[in-house]
Design a protein that fits this description.
The complex is a heterodimer of chains A (311) and B (300). By secondary structure, chain A is mainly α. In chain A, a hairpin with a 2-residue loop joins strand 1 and strand 2. Chain A is 69% helix and 3% strand. Chain A contains 13 helices and two strands; from the N terminus they run H-H-E-E-H-H-H-H-H-H-H-H-H-H-H. The longest helix of chain A is centred in the N-terminal third of the chain and has 32 residues. In chain A, strands 1-2 form a two-stranded antiparallel sheet. Chain A has one domain: MetI-like (MetI-like fold). Chain B is built from 14 helices and no strands. Chain B folds into two domains: 65 residues, no CATH class; 212 residues, Orthogonal Bundle (MetI-like fold), CATH 1.10.3720.10. Classes of the chains: A mainly alpha (311), B mainly alpha (300).
């Protein structure tokens, strides 16, 4: 992998042996392999999606389908000030946490992309937050961000800062959920971009070094352009995951104080389970789908090479 | 890992000789590396250590500056015993384990053959790419979209508040993950072996079962484990579908977090119980994690 990486496809594996014409031939067996999985997923997604369309066109009250309201639920999306506030909160969350994760993660990957003792240990350690149950991390966060003498505040006060009202102040509560996300997901950016960097050919950077390029020149003109497709991919995956944020918010702040950390997923959940307003919840679901679909379409053309699409 | 294999056109010593200021910079880089490593290690490890400490510290010492067990305080296991004695905790862990094992098995059983189909067979000129794209889009679809209809459908089918519903949901929504990862793994296998078996008259199924599958077995196990961790960590569908009898540990914790006043030792212990399983999985699947989380785009 390392030697062969080229300018065309910096992070792809070495050319694979392609199946010969024998596999291209008409072969019914392929459906036997493919269809169970596809049909199964369709059963669980297309059917609910169609049902969700139907639901979004009806008024649901207390879990019972009511009158047909046409686009009424979608009109509510436009006028619901609470929803708009939660959308703003969600965007604030996504932009701040993903920006920090990208910058810190990629910087760390660049820094640790060299022979050094203990790098394996660092990589192992970095995988732990990724898998740590978000709900549990949020719950633990209540103790970490505890205002009267919790470890985070104790640390800040040791440094001479004042006590931060993490969970009782709207601004700091937002910072707290962003910090948790950064703790959990910066390692993802770090690990994936480190793997990408290690897939780059050493020759190019060394050649530029011989030609007298400063480190920042080889970074800006060689490494980053080669890494661009992968960085877009990381950005896309992170942004979409961040839009779905739910678990940590539910346990750490439960949307509070007030509605300061109410995010779209939790609002939909509340609309559904607390207000039993399933029609409107379905309409909200479609709004979120639209946002994610736009993100995906915007970035897909930049990243599809990572999945083996021809250029 | 990097330097050994790549043939260097210019000896590095030569580069260094051209650039005398490099030695000072090397030392600076080294110090920076050590400092940054230390910060990163503390930053990542602290929450785990904090949870561990609280789980073995008596509640009165929570806010004291006692950081080293045996030296500064005598570790006790009574919080662990107290937490374990809660029936809902044991029940929750059992439910989580069932969802994890069931979901992982379901997703792997459906996902691996589909991955093989995408990696090996041709579905028209653009079919394979379209299929990958479709699985990817399924993977990134926000679960919130499915929540309202799934609640109503589960109610209609009498599956509300059953572990079966949660196993089905965990399994289904993780199939795309398995397909994306495993199709990349199958593609990395040399196809010649399978083709020669075909010449010898083996059926597609035999080739898959006897040649391809054993070769990617570590990958299959890793995907199974990773999906197990995902399903274990899942809470959204549980909150939608479960209410009393099928409450996994994640949902139990959500319930606790909503109450006023947090019992620090118990909270830490439950968080550790929850995190233990995915942590072990993360340590076991080191080699596959980068590939898994980048949905197959990058080899780790």
């Amino acid at each position: 992998m390392r030697g062969e990486a080229t300018v065309e496809a910096p992070v792809r594996a070495a050319p694979r042996s392609e199946p010969s014409a024998r596999w291209r031939a008409r072969d019914r067996a392929k459906w036997f392999f493919l269809l169970p999985g596809v049909v199964w997923i369709l059963l669980f997604t297309i059917f609910p999606l169609l049902y969700a369309i139907r639901m979004s066109l009806h008024a649901y009250r207390f879990g019972i389908e009511g009158a047909f309201v046409g686009l009424g639920n979608f009109q509510r999306l436009l006028t619901d000030a609470v929803l708009h506030e939660d959308l703003v909160t969600t965007f604030q969350f996504v932009i701040s946490s993903v920006a920090v994760e990208m910058v810190v993660g990629v910087s760390l990957a660049l820094l640790f992309n060299r022979e050094m003792r203990g790098r394996g240990l660092l990589r192992t350690l970095a995988t732990l937050p990724l898998f740590a149950t978000p709900v549990a991390i949020g719950y633990l966060g209540i103790t970490l961000f505890y205002e009267e003498g919790g470890p985070v505040n104790a640390f800040i006060q040791t440094l001479g800062g004042s006590q931060v009202p993490w969970l009782s102040n709207p601004f700091w509560a937002k910072v707290a959920i962003i910090l948790l996300d950064i703790w959990q997901w910066t390692p993802f950016v770090f690990l994936v971009s480190l793997a990408g960097l290690q897939g780059l050919s050493q020759d190019l950077t060394e050649a530029s070094e011989v030609d007298g390029a400063a480190w920042w020149q080889s970074l800006v003109f060689i490494i980053l352009p080669l890494m661009a497709p992968l960085l877009w991919l990381i950005l896309l995956l992170r942004a979409i995951e961040a839009f779905k944020v739910f678990d940590t918010v539910v346990t750490l702040t439960a949307g509070g104080p007030g509605r300061a950390t109410e995010v779209i997923s939790r609002y939909t959940y509340i609309t559904m389970r607390k207000f039993s307003d399933y029609g409107y919840a379905a309409a909200q679901g479609f709004l979120l789908l639209l946002i994610v679909a736009i993100l995906f379409t915007l970035l897909w053309s930049r990243i599809k090479h990572n999945y083996g699409a021809p250029r | 890992m990097v330097s050994a294999a790549s043939a260097r056109p210019v000896h590095p010593e030569y580069v260094r000789a051209q650039n005398p200021g490099k030695t000072a910079r090397k030392i600076a880089t080294r110090i920076a590396l050590i400092v940054v490593s230390a910060i990163v290690i503390v930053w990542i490890a602290f929450p785990f250590y904090w949870a561990f400490l609280n789980s073995i510290k008596p509640a009165v010492d929570t806010f004291g500056s006692k950081w080293i067990p045996w030296v500064q305080f005598e570790p006790r296991l009574d919080t662990w015993q107290r937490v374990w004695s809660i029936r809902e905790v044991r029940q929750g862990l059992l439910t989580s384990a069932t969802i994890g094992l069931g979901g992982a098995t379901l997703a792997t059983a459906f996902g691996v053959p589909a991955a093989y189909a995408i990696a090996r067979f041709r579905f028209g000129t653009k079919g394979n790419m379209a299929m990958t794209n479709w699985f990817l889009s399924q993977r990134i679809m926000p679960p919130v979209i499915f929540a309202p209809p799934i609640f109503i459908l589960a109610r209609t089918l009498g599956l509300l508040d059953t572990v079966l519903a949660l196993v089905l949901l965990a399994g289904t929504f993780n199939i795309p993950f398995v397909v994306l990862i495993m199709s990349q793994m199958f593609r990395d296998l040399p196809v010649e072996l399978e083709e020669s078996a075909q010449v010898d008259g083996a059926s597609r199924w035999e080739i898959f079962r006897r040649i391809a599958l054993p070769l990617v077995a570590p990958g299959v196990v890793a995907s199974w484990l990773i999906v197990l961790a995902f399903s274990w960590n899942e809470v959204f569908f549980a909150l939608v579908v479960a209410s009393k009898d099928a409450i996994p540990m994640t949902m139990y914790i959500v319930g606790l977090s909503g109450t006023r006043g947090v019992d620090f030792p118990a909270a830490s212990t439950m968080a550790l119980l929850m995190i233990a399983v995915p942590t072990i999985i993360a340590l076991t699947c080191q080699r596959f994690i980068v590939r898994g989380l980048s949905l197959g785009a990058v080899k780790g």
